[in-house]
Fold:
Amino acid sequence: MPEQPYEPADRTRPPLRPQPASGDDDSSEPGWKTEGLGSGRSEGTERWQWPGGRWFWAIVAGLFVLNWLVASLLLDDAVSRLTIPYTGFVSEVEGGNVVEVSARGETIQGTFIDPVTDPEQPGVEWTEFETQRPEFADDDLFAVLTDQGVEVSAEPTDQPAPFWQQLLFGFGPTLLILLLLFGFFRRMGRGLGGLGGLGSSRATRYEPTENRVTFDEVAGIDEAEAELAEVVDFLRNPAKYTQLGAVIPRGVLLSGVPGTGKTLLARAVAGEADVPFFSMAASEFVEMIVGVGASRVRDLFNQAKAAAPSIIFIDEIDGIGRARGAAMSFGGHDEREQTLNQILTEMDGFTGNEDVVVMAATNRPDVLDPALLRPGRFDRHVVVNAPDRQGRTAILGVHTRMVPLDPGLDLTDVASMTPGMVGADLRNLVNEAALMAARRQHTTVGLSDFTDALERIVLGAERKIMLSPEDRERTAFHEAGHALLGILQPGADPVRKVSIVPRGRALGVTLQSPETDVYSYAESYLRGKITGALGGRAAEELVYGEPTTGAENDLEQATQIARRMVGRWGMSDAIGPVSVLPSEDRPAFPLMTNEMSPETQALIDAEVRRIVDDCHAAALAALGANRSKLDALAAALLEHETLEEEEVYIIAGLTEVPGDEPGSESVHGQRAR
Structure:
């Protein structure tokens, strides 16, 4: 790849925010512009005011009163007593009916031996009593009490709670509630979003010096990397572009199948540009409470502006960026639409965001709102495609940096076995190969480890089940039919392995994969693909006179290819060169009326049936003409269970393994019984 201006070798760059000279309001060198960061008040000088009004403080006072009453009831552990006259008390003492008394000042409390009836409530008897001794009384009460054997103490038994307990239980809970309320309102006052910070952004911020990712860790997607080189160079050298009147794209949309490295590429852009990187998933914006998503969008952009120049990365943006009006909503305002509207405003509204670059990733760019994709918002679309063989070799080189490889291993051989795999798949393959080598007590990872790991990923793990002799024989003929037609069909993908060892949900597997990446398919190749898929069923019919349920996956694959040929690729004379079926990337909305007429649908079904019937007849004819080769392959499978590529072609009567021909598919060809 040619050298780009963002290469790590050149790390010197002018300041991102050039300051004007003293006394000079105009800078000769244009720099970053930041707008919309406040109302003119300097940061940190904003004063917080006490919240609430008359109703707020009335509620606070009511809480204090309620708290005090409840605390009084909880702390009041005094015993209910009968209040009696002092003369009645003296009479009870002289009568020997008092067992103990206690006094504080002139207040006397005590306990009767025999209960005394309440004069005001007949039938109610009391054991505990209380009386007040008059100050003018000159009787020798203490002598009378001691003569009667009454136990005398200096203080009443009913002691009030200590002052600290009254203060704690009387005002503590209310004070705690007030502190929580003040903290709640203070967080709101600081602009962290409504509802006590619920509307604050949850974006993860990566500093340039932490977890730094560069383009050295990105491989196999050179085209996408080159597209983003300009963004990196602008973030590092803004004056180079602004002095010519150029404006960097405000938004960069990364689209592609899952696992191609969109998120890694975005982090590499931030690492190369040496700016803060804010990452957030689209699903984190939406909450149950309406308005929270828009609040989080505002807070995210405010954080990015404060750290500008910076990059905002929104992963899976189709979660909030779908076309408005397409989703069912029973309210006047949909939360997702409010969040999307806020993103549209922040990206290209009244405030300038020239110092913030928004990057987003999605697997479904076709469902995004058109307003999000127009120039001025996401005005640069970068498609991250699956890598070719050279790209896969480079990706394997990145993922095997820390893996001890066998000296004789060539990563190009591994890349040729993995057409259609993306970066995430290749990383998983390297890890599975390392685990395979560790289980085998190897010190290095070799080609056999990669091959077995690939079979485990593509075909599934082996199942330890016992097949009956009849099922085992049927499976052998079924897979022999697939393999033989894969050899006989012109331009077919080479047969890599045939096995009757149960894997995953299949009782047997025939693996076919090309060695080159081809991106268009001829009609003859597709018909051969259908014929090969029906080879297992045709072999069972030829040998046993009836099919089994083992061809279910084969029939699904054949029908799908035939339907695409008729409805999408114009490979039917009856339908003509028109596309009448929606693409998998653009599925029809389920509630919309299907534009296809019933006559066209019936014609499609008839053409699909005709193509499949023709291919089925071709499969029966080819296997019938080569019955001896079919029997030989089935016998070898029953004996060895698994046949490698060279063994298959030798048994079929070919001394050399033919190379791939044009028209090979760019994904693994797997047929499972």
Observations:
- The domain at 82-153 is CATH 3.30.720.210 (Signal recognition particle alu RNA binding heterodimer, srp9/1).
- The chain is about 40% helix and 10% strand.
